[in-house]
Amino acid sequence: MARHLITSALPYINGIKHLGNMVGSMLPADVYSRYLRQRGHEVLYICATDEHGTPAELAAKAAGQSVQEFCAEQHDAQKAIYDGFALSFDYFGRSSSQQNREITQEFARELKANGFIEERAIRQVYSIADGRFLPDRYIEGTCPHCGYDKARGDQCENCTRLLDPTDLINPRSAVSGSTELEVRETTHLFLLQSKLAGEVEAWIDENGKDWPTLASSIARKWLTEGLNDRAITRDLDWGVPLPADVWPELAAQGKVFYVWFDAPIEYIGATKEWSDADPANRNWKSWWYETTDVRYTEFMAKDNVPFHTVMFPATQLGTRAPWKKVDYVKAFNWLNYYGGKFSTSQRRGIFTDAALELLPADYWRYFLIANAPESDDTSFSWELFSSTVNKDLADTLGNFVNRVLSFSLKRFGDTVPAGDAPGEAERALGAEVAGLLAEYEGHLETLQFRKAAQALRALWSAGNVYLESKAPWLEIKTNPEGAALTLRTAMQLIHLYGVLSAPFIPATAAAMRAVFATDDAAVEPTWVSPEQAAALDFVPAGTSFAVPPVLFAKITDEDLAAWRERFGAQ
Known about the structure:
Helix content: 40-55%
Oligomer: single chain
């Protein structure tokens, strides 16, 4: 059985992330990790804050803190929110860790030894007002491709085109706002991607055949346009320093590695952080070095795809060491906010801290996965959110649980009733549930999250259809034993929903499992096979139960009005 290594694109350190970041990498990775664990697989789910680069320095300056203080504070703040969303990381590290520094420097040494890094004198923007060379993200201006007037010197946030600072129209310093800029000569290290292009293409041909179209098309677009050599150092005070044993002069100048060079290596660095916390029982190299039994899946939004499918594999290939490379890249389009982009820099949209202030995590987890931007960009609206919560969570699932348990408590007491033996209606329900469960499993295995949500919703709906068709509130008047059978069967579904819903809505799933006073109510559930599900025989008659509080409260028109006013609804 394969061991599963799972990573989410590292959330950047400069502030709390919005819902688009959540659904674009971390949440689907968590759903998949939870599902695999329930199926009995060994899983290592790794993530970390991405702490180097220009935005960290600028954000720290704006906050009046040292960059070290700022990053430590923001790491803790982000981790608290991810805990609030019940993200089940095995380890959530920091790219500024000593482990990442050491591994990044070793990567660079190996690349240099193999002839894939060289020093080049280049002409770079220098700010006279700031008295320093400006790294690409320290320069802002108008994108020459789309006209966006807040494009950065490395990439346009609006059209996602990669840029050089000298491409910008009307450039200005992001530090001081000064336009008193000039181009001067300086020396940087370049990763010779052009020498690795053939190897990268051959690797993608072999390993990317089953990737989603979004991931493979972006990777091949980069290769078609030509894999150019890329500068991997910057003039910054904060980052992984160059190893002085290899580049003493550049190290003395204070140059650091480009954030997109060290950030993917942090997947390995964070795994070593995890391993170093318990070295007697954990071995980071067993996941990353000379592995034969590990399946590695990466989750990311589409703007991160080029770096993960081309640049990082080129880096790994160039070391000539047997590093584990990604097997499957699950890429997502963007979740927009009323048709416009969520934006951290412009504070546009709903941010994860505010979301948890409004409603518990399960509301957001289900909605985001049910509307995940897999095949194309999707758009958040409060109206869609309200409709999804009220119809799927409050009515289809929550109301079913409450109706069944409340009615049974009233008519049969606080234990699961026995009643008649199962009949044709129960056998038909079991067959339907087994088929839907097989669909649900298939979609989760192939990482089709919206389809998985549809199958889960269909499982919940099957219980409602059964309950309405048997109508125990009428059946009890003429056939009490038949009504008891109906309620007992419906309770089997509640238990089943508590197991199968756990990857999506873990807190609610735990509440459904805790309804019944069974020996395993408090433990992480194992999975249920379609054959087991068809039997609908999980909780014995006579088992005591309790009616839980309302699982999901409905969103009211007053709620919607208040949220639209607070967050805007264009």
